[in-house]
From TrEMBL:
SUPFAM superfamilies: Ferritin-like. This is Rubrerythrin diiron-binding domain-containing protein. Signal peptide: none annotated. InterPro entries: Ferritin-like (IPR012347), Ferritin-like_SF (IPR009078), Rr_diiron-bd_dom (IPR003251). It holds the Pfam family Rubrerythrin. Residues 25-142 form the Rubrerythrin diiron-binding domain.
Amino acid sequence: MEEYGLMILDNVGGMDSKVSTISQYMYNYIIIDDSFRELKTLFLDMAKDEMKHLNILMTLALTLNMNPRWWTCLNDQCCYWSPSYLNYSRQITNIIINALEMEYKMINKLLYQVNIIDDPKIISILNQIIYDNKKHITLLKKWETKLVR
C-alpha cells in the first residue's frame, strides 16, 4: 500500500500534480484580459474541479497512511511542491496549449496508475478524475480551435 500512497502523493504535490494545475489555472484566471471573460471563468471553474480532486486525493493519501503534504517522495527523498513548476506565459495561445498539456499529462499519469494499482476503490477514484480531466480537454479544445488555429 505504501507504493500506492506514494503515487497518490505525487498526484497531490509533484511537478505534474493537482496543486500545480490549481495554481496554474488561478494564475491564468488572474492574468487573462477581461475581454476574455468566458475563458477566465472556464479557468476558475476548472480550478474548482481540481480543488475537489485535490481534496479527494489528499484524503486518499491519508487513508493510505501517508502524510498528505504538497510533496512527492522517491527513494526516501521527499521534495516539496514548488511554484517553479508553473508556466508563467501571458500569451493566450500559450496559456491554452499549456493547459491542454497539463490535462493530458495528468490523464496519462493516472491511466498508468490505474493499470498497476490493484485496488478497485482507488481505481474508481482515479477513473473519475480522468473523466473530469477529459471534460476539461473538451472545453479547452473549443478555445484552442477558436484562438490558436
